[in-house]
């Protein structure tokens, strides 16, 4: 995974606990465009690496913008960025990766965000607006004060008429509102959602009544429920004609690293997709949240940081 240095060109307080950071390449070169919905890894001042979605226009070659919410339980990631990073500081970031691609051939795209989950939806909205696709962006938050980028979205994005705010709804009011937001879907519509796990599951459940599950695209910011590991068993991994045993309590990535084979990783929680390897044989036990259901059913890829095997041996290849 390529990492490079950037300079912080601007820091803005978007809300009382969300700051945006405008980044430029430290060497002065342009970034070039990035795929809408992509995220980057940022290594903060305490060397903690976290993923953040880009929310600047994807075709802006010069700037990347990320928004960082100060998490109450921050283990050094968001807190260090909030407290220690100022204009002029340097950070290290990865090249953008995309797990939330815009689907081709949709009759409409409905973007449904909650809270800080709006960030990947902003770059997708910029992109859809630029290529003149039919879309709406629905933004749920506890209040306008707690919602970042409201003025940008309504007044300066160029697509303010496609943005709809849903602020201050009680939890039990959400399903009805989501139902009306998603009511105009057809079988060729696509829905993209990012926010808390329960919110995304409600969106998926309501949308899946009309569109195929694979037309609902979910961006996970955090690992979901922990998998029950009590019934884990050892298995073998074959790579380049060598066989390694993966014991209970160790991941494929760890076992390969123990044997001098480095697999690129980032989140190590099954959410970013960096560690995905090819599967040439055997049946994976998918435990990630970064691949779609159809990708998992194909059984030809595996997120090697968390997933295990249902068969005694997996034959893998490095991408
Ligand atoms: S390192 Fe992120 S999914 Fe494996």
TrEMBL record:
One Pfam family from the record: Fer2
Domain of life: Bacteria
Entry keywords, A to Z: 2Fe-2S, Flavoprotein, Iron, Iron-sulfur, Metal-binding, Oxidoreductase
InterPro entries in the cross-refs: 2Fe-2S_ferredoxin-like_sf (IPR036010), 2Fe-2S_ferredoxin-type (IPR001041), 2Fe2S_fd_BS (IPR006058), Beta-grasp_dom_sf (IPR012675), FAD-bd_FR_type (IPR017927), FNR_nucleotide-bd (IPR039261), MRET (IPR050415), Riboflavin_synthase-like_b-brl (IPR017938)
Keyword Metal-binding: yes
Gene Ontology molecular function: any one: vanillate monooxygenase activity
All copies of domain 2Fe-2S ferredoxin-type, residue ranges: 233-319
E.C. number: 1.14.13.82
The protein, known as: Vanillate O-demethylase ferredoxin subunit
Source organism of this protein record: Arthrobacter ginsengisoli
